[in-house]
What we know:
The structure holds two protein chains of two kinds. By secondary structure, chain A is α/β, with parallel strands linked by helices. Helix content of chain A is 46%, strand content 10%. Chain A has two domains: 25-131, Rossmann fold, CATH 3.40.50; 135-201, Helicase, Ruva Protein, domain 3 (Orthogonal Bundle), CATH 1.10.8.60. Chain A has helices at 25-35, 54-64, 83-98, 118-124, 137-150, 157-166, 171-188, 194-202; strands at residues 43-47, 72-76, 102-107, 128-131. Chain A has a four-stranded parallel sheet, sandwiched between helices. The two termini of chain A are 25 Å apart. Chain B is of the alpha/beta class. In chain B, 56% of the residues lie in helices and 10% in strands. Chain B has a five-stranded parallel sheet with strand order 6-7-8-5-9, with helices on both faces. In chain B, helix 7 packs parallel to helix 8 and helix 19 crosses helix 20 (424-440). The radius of gyration of chain B is 32 Å and the shape is extended. Classes of the chains: A alpha/beta, B alpha/beta. At the A-B interface, helix 1, helix 2, strand 2, helix 3 and helix 4 of A face helix 2, helix 3, helix 6, strand 4 and helix 15 of B.
Amino acid sequence: MKQLLLDIKPKTRPTIANFVVGKNAEALHSLQMAITGNQNSRFVYIWGPSGSGKSHLLKACSDLFEVPGVSLHCIDDVHLLDSQSQINLFNLYNETRDNNSVLITSGIAAPSQMGLREDLSTRLAWGLTYQLHPLTDTEKAIALKNHALERSMKLPDDVIDYCLKHLRRDLPTLMAILDALDDWSLTEKKPINVPMLRKLLQLPLNI
Amino acid sequence: MENFWSLCLDRFKEELSSQQYNTWIRPLQVEINKDTLKLFAPNRFVQQWVKDRFLPRIYIFAEEILTSPINIDLVLLENINVKNVSDKNNSLDDHSDDKDSKVVYKKNDQRKTTHLKNNSGLNSSFNFDNFVAGRANQLARAAALQVAENPGTAYNPLFIYGGVGLGKTHLLQAIGNYLKQHNPDAKIRYLHAERYVSDVVKAYEHKAFDDFKKQYHSLDLLLIDDIQFFAKKTRTQEEFFYAFNSLIEEKKQIIITCDTYPKEIADVDERLRTRFSWGLTVAVEPPELEMRVAILLKKAEEAKIGLNEDVAFFVAKQVRSSVRELEGALNRIMAMARFTGRNIDVHLAKEALKDLIAVRGRQITIENIQKTVADYYKIKVAEMYSKKRTRNFARPRQVAMALSRELTNHSFPEIGEAFGSRHHTTVMHACDEIETLRQNDPTTARDIAFLIQVIRD
Lengths: 207, 457
């Protein structure tokens, strides 16, 4: 009989601390400036392929922000905005500029490369623009370890090695595998190891 | 105990990069009280980071250096300040202010605009003094200045058109600010056309057209930005037609900006378009190189940053389209200089601009890599999947495998599959082999560096 899980595992909120920096130290620094009310950094636009950590950073920023009297807007995935939403963001930008608020946006490419309205894309490029650089395999391993630590999982190094060798190596996939491993190990009441991971990979996964 | 913290600082200096040290450790303020070390973080961001990353280290240092155990309190510096303030004026307003600062995180957000508090809509940071003039905009600037000096009589309306980010709004605002300065009682209104549209909608919903008319028809100066937003908004166009006529009749000044000249505005009533060209129509052209350099130097001067002309020229050559992007480029360069502590030179500028003007990286696929590598070694793409193991096929195949590993997120088994269903250990072996060659054989290293560049661009 299958052990049912009482789903009380801690939710891992994206935070600044569990973001693995890699080559993105300056971008992170500018976001820090933005959410602590530094005037030089009121508009930040970050871009990169999916899985590079854009949403993670935006969520973390919105969690941490607290500057009295100032509001923060985080708009994720601006490349998906339809024409009316682009006008809305255009208005939001102008408003933000006038009332000293903060606007953090993200998208999949540099501002002028996404086919957005020109009056919007030039505005996004007006503030600070950062490309998020993907992590190396070593940095991905660190990210996986941190994630496991937050969920109090015991994650042996050879499991990480196995993941990096045999699985797709974008972080969302790797994290999802980790979560599935955790659930599986709790259900089966067995520690996490490579044979178990291999067995898990035989099952159809919802990731 | 007194010098414990300075010992900690020394240790961190050794262990961390100067960037990390300056960002996380140096901003900490310290207070020592018997066996308690109180650390003040300047903000929650630093607090959280230090707590997770460095606090355990500090405890370890303490164990190594000190004889007795210590307590470490990591608190927020702001907390103290904020508390003091709210203790003093513990009013409701304060509280609601806090609520306003609530964060909004929205995906694909569609929000409604809220009202600006400032009635005139003017932003005092735009004036004629900080408007950089050049061949591209001198006519527009001259006309704007003349209108600011003689509102309602010089040219009415003044119609300024040009591409995005070329300073139309700056001119509009400068006129408003000039008039306000010389005639503080003048009723001035700057607004974006989009805002006018929503005001019309609101007036319609609340059946408040009388108020609406009173508000707009009594102005001395109406500055309206991006009139092309009126397209297809027939009710708005009708209201604006009345406002326009009434203001012109009263010799009140109207200034309009648009992304094109009056005749070309799409989906706007003919009678409005004719009226727009009653006064003077001037163009703002994209700035030429010298002017872009001048803009950069001016902006740098405002930010009190030393900017060499060669750097300004370099940036001006890279960013050609709009003044906004030009300023964005400079912002990024200054941020990088602040962050790294480096001087602003062409090298740093080049690095900073990468993020701003980089073309969207093409999606790199294994097929793409196979094709590029096959072309480079002048073999057929089919040899990438074939079973032939002669060296002139095997080596390119290995290179392509190693590049697939390096440039995509595919796993070893997936790569093996793409290369004629080879076993994943074959791919692993290829990667090792190529890595060794890259280290020891300059020709291979050069080939691969070249291939990576071709594949990435």
